[in-house]
Write a sequence for this structure.
């Protein structure tokens, strides 16, 4: 019997030894995470419902909760005591540490993850910024508010909307995504992604973005814009566009308060109205005065059909011609005046060929139709002319020759030009008539080492002024032009008139000289105080030389063989062209001339005074201007 009792006791001890360690391995009940306990502050009515697996508490009327430093207010709520989730209804208000306030009509709050979802008139504010949307989510731990079903942010006068948005309340940064639109009284910004700091009011561009200011539109893909100060810095080739042109560069800085913009790196300004482009590595734009200063290898491109013109200089400047501004040019008042008819004197000749009349002398009462003047063939002395004024040639009747009279104007100092450059007074001022809007009229100023190239015309000068009001290029300080690789034009000052951005006329003032290469060491030459040349279409029509006019012309027969060299001088010379060749040479008023047989020409006398063949300065290709 005792043996049986001992066996039972031993078995009991063994069972207890096996059971006790098993109980020691069971997990102890977990305490709630710090800060996740939702404290009940009060309500008008409280109901505890426990049934099967349900364990909830209902709060009706002025329900109030607290979790850490966050307070919750609502009209009614239901708290799941097992999941620690609260659903609140009516006038929901969340106050996080008196810094962030969130409102809505419905709240779903997870006390464990501390993530709140609000719907129906949802709104989040930190005192300065207000975010609204049909649904807002707020992470109490990360302090991040977000919406994924469209939302709206109001920061002062700026309103931002997007499909998605994430607001970091501690750093005051907002990340907008998809259909982002920022509306400000002064501009509208639209993009698909944007970073915006509500404290500094700086918008960081992280996607293709459009900033519309009404009169100007900017396109950018990177950079930032200070919406408060109106300062922006944009990279990756942004573009500014207005009604007249576009500005593009590797980087553009702009200050809205001063109206200044700075473009660096491969800048391209395009005047879409006049089909002009200005290229440079650096540009300074005054958006108020509408001026552009281009430096670092600037290049102006003017499109005119197939013959595009390129102009390069050390510096290019363009601005708007305002009412009252003017730029005087040589007088054109006497362009249609008839010349004073003078008796003609005899011409001295040296063994002239019988079959050729090199120079035609017009006497009073003579008729071009009656004389049946022989043509004087020669190489083309091509240069630019005015097609409108060229029509004056149509007025040449068979009884008399109507000359283009150019009065010698006095020198005056110009206001809108280069320092130290003198121009001529004129009745053609650039100022607009009273009441006429000149906002679209623009001028271009190129100075120092100016080079010009087109297929039909090349040139160099120290400075050039061009106005869209009169379409005239003004070349100053040792200007030289070349045409068709054989003709050189030079004078103290040269004016190139254009029509539809194509050269129409050239006016050469003081010491005017035209040289045409007839052959090796042989040059046709025309010299005078003033030379005016005209074209009809794209061909040289005629030219008018006035004041101490001199000419040397190499004459060929019909087979192209040289026959003679004609040298003449008088007060006025008119030279007419046909198919690019000299057709007639008309000497008017006190003419004197000499004809040398080609084999007996005195080479030492075949260069007029101040002759200088400067072909080495001529730009050979447009690519030279781009280097």
């Amino acid at each position: 019997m005792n043996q049986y009792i001992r066996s039972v006791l031993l078995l009991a001890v063994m069972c207890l030894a096996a059971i006790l360690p098993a109980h020691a391995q069971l997990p102890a009940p977990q305490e709630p995470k710090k800060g996740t306990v939702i404290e009940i502050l009060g309500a008008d009515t409280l109901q505890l419902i426990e049934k099967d697996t349900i364990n909830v508490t209902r709060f009706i009327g002025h329900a109030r909760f607290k979790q850490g430093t966050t307070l919750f207010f609502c009209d009614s709520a239901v708290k799941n005591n097992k999941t620690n989730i609260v659903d609140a209804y009516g006038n929901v208000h969340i106050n996080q540490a008196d810094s962030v306030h969130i409102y809505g009509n419905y709240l779903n709050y997870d006390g464990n993850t501390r993530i709140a979802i609000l719907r129906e008139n949802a709104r989040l504010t930190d005192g300065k910024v207000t975010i609204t949307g049909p649904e807002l989510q707020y992470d109490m731990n990360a302090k991040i508010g977000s919406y994924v079903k469209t939302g709206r942010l109001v920061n002062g006068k700026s309103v931002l909307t997007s499909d998605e948005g994430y607001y970091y309340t501690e750093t005051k940064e907002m990340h907008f995504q998809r259909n982002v639109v920022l509306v400000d009284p002064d501009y509208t910004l639209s993009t698909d992604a944007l970073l915006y700091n509500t404290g500094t009011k700086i918008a960081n561009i992280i996607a293709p973005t459009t900033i519309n200011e009404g009169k100007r539109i900017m396109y950018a893909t990177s950079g930032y814009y200070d919406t408060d100060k109106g300062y922006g810095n944009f990279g990756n080739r942004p573009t500014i566009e207005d009604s007249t042109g576009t500005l593009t560069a590797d980087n553009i800085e702009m200050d809205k308060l001063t109206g200044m913009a700075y473009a660096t790196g491969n800048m391209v300004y395009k005047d879409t109205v006049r089909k002009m482009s200005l290229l440079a590595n650096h540009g300074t734009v005054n958006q108020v005065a509408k001026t552009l200063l281009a430096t670092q290898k600037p290049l102006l491109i003017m499109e005119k059909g197939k013959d595009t013109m390129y102009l390069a200089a050390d510096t290019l400047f363009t601005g708007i011609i305002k009412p009252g501004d003017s730029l005087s040019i040589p007088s054109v008042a006497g362009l249609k005046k008839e010349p004073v008819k003078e008796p003609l004197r005899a011409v001295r000749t040296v063994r002239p060929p019988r079959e050729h009349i090199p120079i035609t002398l017009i006497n009073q009462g003579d008729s071009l139709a009656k004389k049946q003047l022989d043509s004087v063939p020669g190489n083309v002395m091509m240069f630019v002319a005015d097609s409108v004024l060229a029509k004056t040639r149509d007025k040449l009747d068979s009884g008399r020759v109507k000359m283009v009279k150019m009065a010698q104007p006095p020198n005056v100092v110009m206001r809108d030009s280069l320092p130290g450059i003198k121009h001529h007074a004129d009745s053609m001022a650039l100022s607009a008539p009273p009441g006429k809007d000149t906002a679209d009229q623009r001028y271009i100023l190129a100075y120092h080492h100016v080079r010009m190239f087109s297929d039909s015309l090349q040139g160099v000068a120290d400075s050039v002024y061009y106005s869209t009001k009169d379409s005239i290029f003004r070349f100053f300080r040792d200007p030289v032009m070349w045409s068709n690789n054989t003709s050189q034009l030079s004078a103290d000052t040269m004016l190139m008139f254009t029509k539809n951005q194509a050269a129409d006329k050239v006016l050469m003032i003081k010491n005017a000289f035209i040289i045409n290469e007839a052959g090796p060491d042989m040059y046709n030459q025309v010299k005078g105080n003033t030379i005016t040349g005209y074209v009809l279409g794209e061909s040289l029509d005629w030219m008018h030389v006035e004041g101490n006019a001199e000419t040397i012309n190499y004459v060929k027969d019909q087979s192209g063989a040289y026959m003679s060299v004609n040298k003449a001088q008088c007060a006025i010379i008119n030279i007419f062209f046909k198919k690019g060749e000299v057709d007639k040479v008309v000497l008017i008023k006190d003419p004197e001339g000499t004809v040398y047989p080609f084999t007996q020409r005195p080479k030492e006398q075949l260069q007029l005074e101040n002759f200088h063949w400067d072909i080495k300065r001529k730009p050979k290709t447009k690519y030279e201007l781009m280097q």
Summary: Residues 245 and 272 are 5 Å apart (CA to CA).
